[in-house]
Amino acid sequence: MQRRSHLPDITPFLLKEATDRPQASLLARRQAQTGPLVTNLLHQTVQLEDDRTRDFLQLLDGARTIDQIITEMTERFGPTIRINQTDTAGQPAEPLLLSTRESVERSLAMVSKLGLLVA
Question: Cα separation of 23 and 104, whole Å?
């Protein structure tokens, strides 16, 4: 006999890749306004990397296209974004310089993998 859960399945609301108007969960966007810890759609706590990522999450409200998000991020941070990195031992490594478009695409992939995008 199969046991059935009475909890709703939330996976239909979880996106694995961004749409043309990406939207992060309202809860995560609100939490990102006050700190680096947010709750994803799987009810797990996720730590956002930096203030730029927190700002980025605020733009994912479903009203903006990816091109509009890129434009806003370029206005805020310039045409190139520096990503600080560490090596396997946790020591500072050569920073990665990305165009704002590359940075937005990378960030969209990251928030998608973290379970923060809603359908």
Answer: 14
CA distances from residue 88 to 70, 85, 92, 99 in whole angstroms, order as listed: 31, 10, 10, 25
Please tell me what DSSP assigns to residue 88. T
pLDDT digits (tens, 9 = 90+) for 66-101: 999 999 999 998 898 887 778 888 888 888 888 999
- Token pair of 51 as six digits: 């203030």
Q: Is 87 exposed, middle or buried (0-12, 13-18, 19+ CB in 10 A)?
A: exposed
26-39: pLDDT as tens digits: 999 999 999 999 99
The Cα 100–Cα 77 span in angstroms is 8
DSSP 32-80: HTT-SEEE-TTS-EEE-SSHHHHHHHHH-BSSS-HHHHHHHHHHHH-SE
pTM for the model: 0.77
